[in-house]
Specification:
single chain; about 325 residues; alpha/beta; TIM Barrel; eight-stranded parallel beta barrel; two-stranded antiparallel sheet; binds flavin mononucleotide
Length: about 325
């Protein structure tokens, strides 16, 4: 059974990529993940605010003005920029699968030049995560997206290695934005960033920050957008958010993903879950007489749909109308 996939111009032995997370902080863990079957590893993010102290100061003072003293000090980050670069070198000398660095920020500018050091240390690609919650009512949607496009354009012209963009689903026209990102040189789109939404503790009447692991229901939003984006883009697509089983993987591949990124399922079950996922995928392929991913990847995308927008709307109406009480 051939599980090889092409992702960001890299040839991966299977579609199971370890998503951005703390797993690469320890080279021993990274090696274990490789041995368990991971085909590539994405490091935790290095933040714009770490690289550009001016940005950090602005955000830190805004946070303290709100009485929130939890914004990390420079040394409070797990990996400061120099150690991040050294960690890439350690990983590259320990594992043979591709190492993807992760940058997290949104402004075009000089902080992006740090990407050259990531490339120099041996990173095989970079994933750029735009985690941005726009709360300023004077900022229009097109300003946000123009800035994103400039940031991606800056980054793709700074390094020669491929750049993937980890996108949020909260854009008025995700399809247009994804196509524009590809035109700016993005080699891949990762769907979608998960937003960590604070809860409210009603006992002490306080906002409670939390990091909840995903569950498979989160995959559905990703599947819809993979199916829409797949026929529109020639760059790579990865699903992140809610991939917990081999069935989830099959669904993501059928809707057009080249790779699935897994984090929560690894945190819950450990590296051995990778072989469960791989065997499940192989069994499904065997049952359906497929010997390689290309035979079914994208089979359920919206390529053959003459009017995807009408199709989406019709399905929505049909589902609502199907309920009777
Ligand atoms: C503990 C933890 C740390 C994470 N750190 C990062 C990060 O540094 N950068 C990033 O882009 N995503 C980060 N993520 C998000 C994951 O890469 C992934 O997109 C998300 O968890 C959804 O995938 P999952 O359903 O497989 O967990 C993190 C997730 C977890 C659970």
């Amino acid at each position: 059974m051939n599980l090889t996939t092409h992702y960001l111009g890299l040839t991966l032995r299977n579609p199971f990529v370890v998503g951005a997370s703390p797993f690469c902080d320890d080279v021993y863990v990274a090696r274990k993940l490789q041995d368990a079957g991971a085909s590539a590893l994405i490091m935790r993010s290095l933040f714009e605010e770490q690289i550009d102290p001016a940005g950090s100061n602005i955000i830190a003072s805004a946070a303290s003005a709100e009485g929130d003293d939890e914004f990390p000090e420079f040394a409070g980050y797990q990996l400061v920029p120099d150690s991040y670069v050294r960690q890439i070198e350690h990983l590259k000398s320990t594992v043979t699968i591709p190492i993807i660095a992760s940058l997290n920020g949104r402004h075009p500018g000089s902080w992006l030049e740090f990407a050259r050091r990531l490339e120099g240390a041996g990173a095989d690609a970079i994933e750029l995560n735009f985690y941005h919650v726009v709360t300023d009512p004077t900022v229009a949607a097109d300003q946000v997206e123009t800035e994103m496009l400039r940031t991606v354009g800056n980054l793709t012209s700074t390094v020669r290695i491929p750049v993937a963009v980890k996108l949020s689903p909260f854009h008025a026209s995700v399809a247009q934005l994804a196509v524009a990102l590809e035109l700016e040189g993005a080699a891949g789109i990762t769907v979608f960033n998960r937003f960590y939404q604070p809860d409210i503790n009603i006992d002490d009447i306080k906002v409670q920050t939390q990091l909840r692991l995903s569950d498979p229901s989160e995959l559905l939003l990703r599947l819809r957008w993979l199916a829409i984006l797949s026929p529109l883009l020639s760059c790579s697509l990865a699903a992140t958010g809610g991939v917990h089983t081999s069935a989830d993987t099959v669904k993501a591949l059928l809707t057009g993903a080249h790779a699935v990124q897994v984090v929560s399922v690894l945190l819950k079950h450990g590296p051995s879950v990778l072989s469960t996922l791989r065997h499940g995928l192989e069994n499904w392929m065997r049952e359906h007489n497929f010997s390689e991913l290309g035979q079914f990847r994208g089979r359920l995308d919206l390529d053959r749909c003459r009017d995807p927008e009408a199709f989406e709307r019709a399905n929505y109406i049909r589902v609502l109308q199907s309920w009777k009480v």
